[in-house]
Amino acid sequence: MKSRTVCRLILPVLIGAYFALTSVLFAEDKKAGPGDVAIVNGKRITVIELDQGVESKMQLLARRGQIPDQTQIADLRKTVLEELINIELLSQESRKKGIKVEESVVGDRLKALKSSFTDEKAYADALSKDKMTESDLKTRIEKGLLIQELVSQEVVQKVTVSPEESKAFYKDNPDAFKQPEQVHASHILIKVEPKAGDAEKKKARKEIEDILKRLKKGEDFAALAKQHSACPSKEKGGDLGFMRRGQTVKPFEDAAFALKPGETSGIVETEFGYHIVRVLEKKQERVVPYEEAQESLDKHLKDVKVQNEVSRYIEGLRTNAKVERPIADTAK
Q: What topology is assigned to 10-163+292-331 in CATH?
């Protein structure tokens, strides 16, 4: 299939949302207070939890360069509230079914989370900022793992894909299995900043010309890349792996796709500076055979089924649950 993600499971979305919304302490079980946005079978979800959840989502959008307007923020609040309700319903169901997770598994997950911080102080500061203790965090991690195990037992393990389904999808969606021409390239980059003056450009040009001369004399491309290239790929001898058209800047793409395997370009100028490109191998455009695509295809089809079944499972929990929305009910 095409090398892109074709679907997302609702489970990782829910679990991801849960951990993104862990910046406040658990609400106590009691009657609705003035700051409650929902009560799920007696369990409160507070305005603070909702606000923190929305803020987490806003930060994710900002990192992608997306700034929602007021209408979009209102819709986002509704979405986050429904996610919180779903998470609470799944958590309650996991407890009803007596699902357990080993303390060691929780500990391993906590250790992995802590390792993402630069040091103990950064970790402690993050907990303090979110008004949490490590014990609170462990409880939340455990809750997320319980939900994950519940969905695994009740949905994922029960979903199957037959060979007939898989082959039918392959036959009915031929475009999904077209693989475009690809080239496996390495390069050496002498970087030139966008605001560089003539003297800096001249110096960079001289450096890339000297490297090209050395290559023509038979020096090793990978060794020169490691020594001179300004691209992170230098650590792999300049190896960029396989690329398709449209994945890099046009001058580089044109040079790479014009070369035959084993050939080296002249000097290629792009917005990043000066390059020398070498093509290692090429793959022509083709249709991926069913036998080669089957494993990833079966996974895709199962993912789609699981997504739909998890949605149905949650709807079933909602049907049998008492979900109150005090603020919305008051506004009616």
A: Triger factor/SurA peptide-binding fold (1.10.4030)
